[in-house]
Structures are given as C-alpha cells and as structure tokens.
Specification:
The longest helix is centred in the middle third of the chain and has 41 residues. The protein has a two-stranded antiparallel ribbon. It folds into 2 domains: about 80 residues, ProQ/FinO domain (Fertility Inhibition Protein O, Chain: A, Domain 1, Orthogonal Bundle); about 70 residues. Helix content is about 65%, strand content about 5%. Helix 1 packs across helix 3, helix 4 crosses helix 5 and helix 5 packs across helix 7. By secondary structure, it is mainly α.
C-alpha cells in the first residue's frame, strides 16, 4: 500500500489516459500543457518519487503513447535539452534522437499527404462519374459496363458524389482548380 492515501495502489490498472492525468497532477512542471523532451530513464525517477502510484505496465503504456505522439516529436525537434520531473533541463538532446524525430514527422507528413491525394483522386473520379451519368445516352447496364462499375455500386457512388458536390465551396470544383493551376 502506498504511503500517499490519495494515490491508487500500483496494482490497480490505469489506462494511459488515467496515467497521463495522474502524471500531470503529480509532476505538472514536466507533464503540463506543453510537451517537453523527457529525461532518459524517467520511469525510475517516477517510481522513486511516487512509490506505489504507477505500475510499470501503466507507465510503459503511457510512455509508448506519449513519446510517439506528434506533439512530443515536434518538441524533440525544437529542444536542445531533456527535462526532469521538476521541469529542469537535465542533459542535452542528442542529434540522433532529434534526427529520428524529424524523420518520423516527415514520414507522417508524407503518409498524410498521400492519403489526402488519394482521397482527392477518389472525389475527382466520383465527380467525373456524376457528370458522365448526367450526360450519357447509354443504358444503365451499358454505362456501368463501360465504366467498369458493378450496377449495384453506381447509386452509392453517385450519392457520395452528389453529397461531395454540395459540400464543396463555390469555385473549388476539381475542374476549376485544375484550370487555375494550368493558367499558372
């Protein structure tokens, strides 16, 4: 049992969110509003300063989430030092760790950009499909065969395209954007 009556026993499983809240309450200088690069092996310091409050599993789960978060990685790229439980600088941040954070952020940006481009390509294709279906003289079956779409999928794709067309701000249609880019 902990000597701190307000502290939950370490045997009580904490979620990472519960652990984050408790760490912010116990060590606000380090786990406050902004992210700070953590001192290496900070778990041992936490266990020493708050015995019985946090289980090793709870801290490990929290730190996996915390140190992998975009906010933490951004903090690593900007800082020169790591920080202890009191929010004081305690050791320089290595170029290797900073570079790893920069690389991971670049990988995430590229992945996000790729997903956004793929989503936009899907919107463009659905918009073109909607235009084509509104002007075609083909039968539904022939239109679907020409476009390589199963007839049962056509209505769903058209519904999505109509909704996307309504949600798109004026002047933001794919055709207008492409024409503006072409003109330079």
């Amino acid at each position: 049992m902990s000597s701190n009556p307000a502290a939950p026993p370490a045997t009580t499983e904490m979620t990472p969110a519960d652990c984050a809240a408790r760490l912010a309450q116990t060590f606000p200088a380090l786990f406050g509003a902004s992210f700070k690069p953590l001192k290496l092996r900070i778990q041992a310091d936490i266990q020493e300063r708050a015995p019985g409050v946090f289980s090793k599993q709870a801290l490990s789960a929290f730190f996996r989430r915390h140190t992998g978060s975009t906010g933490y990685l951004i903090a690593l790229t900007k800082a020169t030092h790591r920080f202890d439980l009191d929010g004081q600088p305690c050791g320089e941040l290595s170029d290797e760790h900073r570079r790893a954070a920069v690389d991971e952020l670049a990988r995430r940006r590229a992945l996000h950009q790729s997903k956004m481009e793929l989503a936009e390509e899907g919107r463009r294709k659905r918009a073109a499909l909607l235009r084509d279906v509104e002007t075609t003289t083909l039968t539904r079956a022939n239109f679907c065969a020409l476009k390589g779409i199963a007839p049962q999928e056509l209505d769903t794709l058209l519904e999505i395209a109509r909704r996307e067309a309504q949600e798109r701000p004026p002047g933001r249609s794919p055709d207008v954007i492409r024409e503006r880019r072409r003109r330079g």
